[in-house]
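Quick question: what would this complex look like in 3D?
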Amino acid sequence: MAEAHAEHRAHHFETAEQQFESGKLGMWIFLATEILLFGGLFCAYAVYRANHPEVFVWAHKYLDVTLGGINTVILICSSFTMAWAVRAAQMGRQKALVTLLSLTLLFACGFLGIKAVEYEHKWKEGLLWGKRFSADLRHGAPAAAADAATAPALPGNTDERSLIGPAASGPAGLAPAGTSGHGHDAPAEAPRNVQLFFSVYFAMTGLHGLHVLAGMAVLGWILRRSVRGDFGPDYFIPVDLAGLYWHLVDLIWIYLFPLLYLIH
Amino acid sequence: MTETGHHGGEAATGGHGFVHIVPFRILAGVWVTLLVLTWVTVSATGVDLGRFNLWLAMAIATVKAALVLLYFMHMRYDRPINAIVFVTALLFVMLFVGFALMDTLAYQPELIPGYAPAVTQ
């Protein structure tokens, strides 16, 4: 059997099956390192959220659940078309393979487009990471409407947050909301260190977005090769492995969506 | 060569005995289930379950992740070594996060709420 498909088999493999299984194992080991990479960020998320639950409850309202939900659906659909594309490749359905890979790429573009819209809103409202954070939070509402009047007010701001840098907040930052010893603890009032949430948000969604970009590059390459007719029942490993990578991107988003957008 | 798993579903087609093709109805079923679970997790956020909101959201996410892994990523039909590699990485991430959280939570009772000499005005 192996001899019949020797043209697809590298010389250092005994059989096509050995080549197939080695490729898969290699990909899974790579995916394991990806899990460890994101694991660091999930750990940062867990520690920040355990220390500052009030920040997460308060700040997640600035994320758009509808856009996040649409993006979740888009990624699930792209995973479905990807899995279907692998099936088409395995069965030698050339046209279906090209169509399904194109659809997967289209969904990926949709995801990034929506992500760009979300990032743009955050950028305009100054809901950014760490020191770049410059939103006016005193009214408990996105500053978009009022930003002409208040957004550039940072230098002369009377907001205590800008007077006390995050580094100096130390123990106070660990205190639960409502007991922080400040006179004005109205529910609409922003807790301290809201920028923590946005640091975590941008780090996690940013790294995920980079993975989407990388996945799109791989899918584009696979699509080009499928148009050329490289794949069929005898040789579909690249489609399969690109699919595994793409599903991992979906897998990570499955956790990011509830952790960032659906905080209760 | 060793036998690879053919746990149900369509058997191999084409020239290779080791290739497993996931049946279309399984792929479509997983897709629909993932969409339904997404809807469930969004709706569940509106219900006040206290701290169980987080656990419910994580449980739903884990079911979704398991579906993606088992069927979209062929893990159920693959050799066990692939699953072992991946699940080991997951376990170590859980250990990592778990120990970090144990540490974080262990110090919390010692903090005096609102006591921050560095920032008292």
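Answer marked as accepted. Chain B touches chain A through 66 residues (CB under 8 Å).
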